[in-house]
Design a protein that fits this description.
The protein is mainly alpha-helical and 124 residues long. 36% of the residues lie in helices and 8% in strands.
């Protein structure tokens, strides 16, 4: 939006951090967006892999909260998200999880870790 006769600057704060090994890094305080279409091979193969341990295909939807996925996407990595619980509560003081959902999440993440890379490589 431009208003005649006015000007402004948008500044994104920068974080400076040092790792335990002494590596220093400066990075912007932002969470870049990440989006893959529902028919992307990465999404389709994740749904296929998750269908077994979840007892059916999981819903494909968006997360309305920030993740680190956008940073990985900017680095050229393919990212899909999966997790148990109620995403409306994620990163809030009310976040909690039912133990059965935790067990389902463990089964799903185990399947993704062991099966998804090979499935995705074949599909791509």
């Amino acid at each position: 939006c431009e208003i005649e006769g006015s000007s402004s600057d948008i500044l994104i704060p920068q974080h400076e951090r040092s790792s335990y090994a002494g590596y220093e890094m400066t990075y912007p305080a932002d969470n870049p967006a990440l989006s893959l279409p529902a028919d992307h091979d990465a999404v389709l193969t994740a749904v296929e892999v998750l269908a077994g341990p979840l007892g059916g295909e999981p819903p494909v939807d968006i997360w309305d909260f920030a993740t680190d996925g956008g940073h990985f996407g900017l680095a050229g990595m393919t990212v899909v998200g999966f997790g148990p619980g109620d995403d409306r509560l994620a990163h809030t003081v009310h976040e909690h999880i039912v133990i059965d959902e935790l067990a389902t999440g463990i089964r799903g993440n185990t399947a993704l870790a062991f099966q998804w890379p090979a499935h995705y490589a074949r599909a791509s």
